[in-house]
Amino acid sequence: MERITSKTNQLVKDIKRLITSSGERAEKKLFVLEGARLCFDVLNSDYGVKYFLITESAFEKYSEKAEKLEAVSEKAFIISDEISEKLGETKNAQGIFAVCKMKESAPGLTDKVIALDNVQDPANIGAIFRTAEALGIKSVITYNCCDIYNPKTLRASMGGVLRLAPVESQSLAKTLDGLKGRYKIYSTVPASAAVKITDVDFTCPSICVIGNEANGVSEEVKAVSDALVTIPMNGNAESLNAAAAASIVMWEMLR
Q1: Alpha carbon of 182 to those of 94, 111, 112, 203: distances in Å?
Q2: What single string gives the DSSP state of each residue in 64-115?
Q3: From CA 180, how far away is CA 206, in angstroms rounded?
Q4: Are 73 and 49 in contact (CB under 8 A)?
Q5: Are 111 and 206 in contact (CB under 8 A)?
Q6: Rounded CA gap, 27 and 64, in Å?
Q7: 252 in helix, strand or coil?
Q8: In 3-state terms, what secondary structure has residue 147?
Q9: CA–CA separation, 82 vs 123, rounded Å?
């Protein structure tokens, strides 16, 4: 492997921009994984690895998996601890980074789908992907959400983003309208007049929409939905955090 020792190296600068800029990620169609867990998770995904960067001490610690990741990467580099600290977004950088290629094509949808309408918190997005993977929801549609390749999202998803490969919609209302007939469309709302989620029959192919943290599901999406559904609450809170609501919804979809 080649060695990079200077923090002013052009590749290091380029990777740092990928880490900090969603615009750069979108333009280059690349994103960055940090840490042993996420970087080695890519070995069990179908994402391609353009660059693999690792410190000497990290390579010694994770030699077996590091050699596997090196083998599937287009180029691999040994980097200094100083470069690791410059690139690292976590408190204690592990000295392992992988620059991965975004997928060109979206996967097909399965019979149970969660759709995210303008969800903006990276931690919420990541938690939703983590829960979806854990429960067996294999399809996620995103519309106007925060960048799913944001480092915070990737960490919160615990690699779920890598394995679920979401479908990005350019207009959620149009996407859902085109799926009507094949799927039942449900929008979640904090309204007592809506159908209780516990009363919904999810035996047929279904899509449940989770809305924006502040404004909920858009009126356009509600208009194309087959029903508005709500999570019954006995406490004083008016609504649930988007990730918490999505977890309950996904549990009910598979119950």
Answers
A1: 46, 9, 11, 13
A2: HHHHHHHHHEEEEEEE-HHHHHHH--SSS--SEEEEEEPPSSPPPP-SEEEE
A3: 10
A4: yes
A5: yes
A6: 33
A7: helix
A8: coil
A9: 28
Per-residue pLDDT tens digits for 212-223: 999 999 999 999
Q: Write the CB contacts of 33 (distance below 8 Å, at least 6 apart in sequence).
A: 39, 41, 42, 97, 98, 99, 100, 154
Question: pTM for this structure?
Answer: 0.89
Q: What is the pLDDT of residues 62-101, one digit of tens each?
A: 999 999 999 999 999 999 999 999 999 877 788 999 999 9
Written as six digits, the tokens of 121 are 């918190």
66/60 Cα distance (integer angstroms): 9
DSSP-derived 3-state class of residue 7: coil
Q: Token pair for residue 240?
A: 């649930």
* Beta carbons within 8 Å of 149's beta carbon, 6+ residues apart: 22, 25, 31, 102, 161
Identify the DSSP state of 145.
P
- Distance separating alpha carbons of residues 177 and 221, to the nearest angstrom: 9
Which phi and psi angles does 62 have, rounded to 5°?
-115, 40
Q: Are 125 and 116 in contact (CB under 8 A)?
A: yes
3-state secondary structure (DSSP) of residue 247: helix
Measured CA to CA, the distance from residue 119 to residue 35 in angstroms comes to 26
- Which residues, in sequence order, are CB contacts of 7 under 8 Å at separation 6+? 80, 82, 83, 86
* Partners of 140 in the β-ladder: 114
Distance (Å, rounded) from C-alpha 197 to C-alpha 253? 9
